[in-house]
Amino acid sequence: MLDESQDRQDDGAPDDSRYDSELDVLRSVVETMSDGLVVVDADGRFLYFNAAAESILGIGKREVDAREWPRTYGLFQADEKTPVPADDLPLARARRGEPVSGHDLFVRNPARPGGLFIRVDARPLHRPDGTLTGGVATFRDVTATRRASDVVHRLSIAIERTGDGVMITAVDGTIQYVNRAFERQTGFTRDEAVGQTPRILKSDHHDAAFFDRMWSAILAGQEFRGTILNRAKDGRPFWSLQTITPIQRTDGRITHFVSLLKDVTEREVELRHERDFNAAILATAGAPVLVSDPDSRVIRFNPACGDASGFRVDDLRGVRLLDHSLVACDVARWRETYEQVLRTEETIRVQLDWTCRQGGRRTIDWSFRALRDETGAPVHVVASGVDVTDQRAAHEALEESERRNRLLVENLHEGLW
Question: Which one-letter DSSP state was computed for residue 317?
């Protein structure tokens, strides 16, 4: 079709070289197309089959009856299983005069054993007088698009069915999507939430610094994870273990934030009761209890520690203990103890001195142990102790008394003889 000029009227005039030149350009364009292009006449005979069509299908032009197209080229419906009836193929419909747009077919044949999806557009061909002369079809490989669409569809179903709340926002915080679990957790319907910002859940429990840290992290492309007290539509407070993940383009630009909300209200209430219980025990315990991070920064410091040191909790919270005057008198042994505790899962018992705020030393018989996370990394160091200063002084006084008595006896013995 494209390589013949038989349809030109021969009026006895010389050949039109410009016509031939334009035909060469057209042929070149068609051959370099990335889309497949196939032309048939009204009887279903192939008139043209470009290189892209053969590359996509794995099979080129074959002189077969139109009823054999599905078997010859391995053409199936989008379910990848059902062969397409020959008369239902887009090109067959086009040669009967029916235009077809965006029809997806699955191709699987010996040259394409793994199969691929193509998207076909087909149009009838007519002579100037309206006579139907055949059809033309163009198609492209849309396998990647279909696979991606299938993945997105499956993910959408999974997100809708998950028990955790999902919220997707634009970079400015405007909510663009929430799932059913979000609706159940918060009481806000999708229509009520979309277009709003997460401030609809604000409980005023967290200070501005908390949200500053959160925004600084996610705007820097980092994931944020924290436990947040939210407030539902009916005013009910609920705790969420919230993970916020930035979605970035290949150039690094952030386009959206995806927030997962796991309702941990029951667990958080239990933990807070447990913390309150433990805090009450620590506050009333007569033994010093010290909790720090692995770098010796003080986290908890109970009243008994205050009594034994003269320092208040607020004096030491967040302070690196190994840099503080409290342990300066015995800092080498304190440092050695921390290093040993972080290396072992055993409890370390050791007597260490510290200098009281008012002056003077106290000796504490400590039991140190590292608390570790699920990976085994130390996250806290807990030390409980007994102030043995008076006991140690009494013991030293007794030893001194015994030493003097021995000397006295020895001197008396020498005097008698």
Answer: B
Instruction: Give strand pairing partners of 76.
Output: 83, 106
Structure tokens that stand for 262 in this block: 């796991």
Per-residue buried b or exposed e for 135-161, using 16+ beta carbons within 10 Å of the residue's own CB:
bbbbbbbbbeebeeeeeeeeeeeebee
Query: E strands along 42-130, which residues?
Result: 46-49, 75-76, 100-109, 112-126
Query: For 2-147, where are the E strands, in sequence order?
Result: 36-41, 46-49, 75-76, 100-109, 112-126, 132-141
Q: What is the DSSP string of 353-398?
A: EEE-TTS-EEEEEEEEEEEE-TTS-EEEEEEEEEE-HHHHHHHHHH
Stated as kind and residue range, the H or E segment containing 309 is helix 303-309
pTM over 0.85: no
Per the structure block, which two tokens stand in for 25?
Answer: 């350009």
Residue, of 229 and 265, whose pLDDT is higher: 229
Distance separating the N- and C-terminal Cα atoms of the chain: 142
Using CA atoms, how far apart are residues 171 and 200, in angstroms rounded to an integer? 17
Least confident of 225-239, 259-273, 291-305, 331-345: 259-273
Spatial separation of the C-alpha atoms in residues 99 and 80, rounded to whole Å: 24
**Is a pLDDT exceeding 70 seen at residue 282?**
no
Q: Which long-range contacts (CB under 8 A, 24 or more apart) does 47-56 make?
A: 47/1, 47/134, 48/1, 48/2, 48/3, 53/139, 56/107, 56/116, 56/118, 56/139, 56/140, 56/141
> Residues 258, 261, 265, CA angle at the centre, nearest 5°?
165
Residue 374 CA neighbour count, 13 Å, CB half: 0
